[in-house]
Amino acid sequence: MAFTTTATQQTSSVLTDEQFYKDVIKGLTSTPKRLDSKYFYDAHGDKIFQELMGCEEYYPTNCEMEIFTSQTAEICKAIIAGGDAFDLIELGAGDATKSTQLLKYLIDNKADFTYLPIDISENVISYLNITLPVTLPGIKITGLNGEYFDMLKKAAAISDRRKVVMFLGSNVGNMPVDVAQGFCRELRNNLSEGDMILIGVDLKKNPKTVLAAYNDSEGITRRFNLNLLERINRELGGDFNTRQFDHYATYNPETGACKSYLVSLADQKIKIGDETISFKKDEYIYMEISQKYAIEQVDDMAVGAGFKPLNQFFDSKKWFVDAIWTA
Ligand code: AVI
């Protein structure tokens, strides 16, 4: 069983159908039309994203896994060097596949830590609470189900130990640059001096490589995007015909913005509950940003948010970085 949770995902019980409906109608009556990628991850979306992570062209997962498997000791030593006992918090833990490498090393090396996965999905948290003590005997785990910043406050109330916050998988890329900067600043405001962040960021690279990751030849990303229209049909009584929409991805190497759209293939009207949404042929819905950063921008983001950049760990191609910042 696998779960995926992203930077902005809020699609479980914490956000209601009513909120989903409001956001969808607001987005589809805006100009240009848009949908929020936080809604990609229902059970179907989770499965498609798992498929995508196993797809050759979608490189970010493999890059970050390579970093965590080849530099486990270095990363953990940098974390441990910050002080003895700590709470290791993971924002949007999902199935904790990537962090498992680090958790195992820390347990094997008798680090004094408690793992606090934070996830908006109650299912994810109960899954981790049950499975991790089996796969990682000796782990101390306190799963927190809720919004990131609410749960960070809760974590601070539970213990005053040093905090190490992991925000992996380039989830930060699913926010526009200014929003990401604000998010990092809010993270800093929720931490104390000496706390740490381990953040995974996808880097600028050959534009064709980036574009192929978001326009894979098997059409997995296409299904991933179209699933949101299907989800609207399933949960909000919509009548989208997904054959009347096409997936279109762009990458701008100057700005580093990789954007996905769904393009209407015909003039058409879509009913969602009592609302009717009109599409012109070739009109698009803006679905998602997956921002890529130059390495200098990663340090700038740290400093701009009030952190000090400490370490950078790269994969062998230098396509992805996991950076440690201190508060
Ligand atoms: C979860 N997030 C970091 C993924 C990304 O690369 O932006 C989501 C994704 N969208 C399309 N492919 C993958």
From TrEMBL:
One term of GO molecular function: methyltransferase activity
Keywords noted in UniProt: Methyltransferase, Transferase
Residues annotated as domain Histidine-specific methyltransferase SAM-dependent: 21-325
InterPro entries documented for this protein: EgtD_Methyltrsf_superfamily, MeTrfase_dom, MeTrfase_EgtD-like, SAM-dependent_MTases_sf
One of the protein's GO biological processes: methylation
Protein name as it appears in the record: L-histidine N(Alpha)-methyltransferase
Organism, scientific name: Mucilaginibacter terrigena
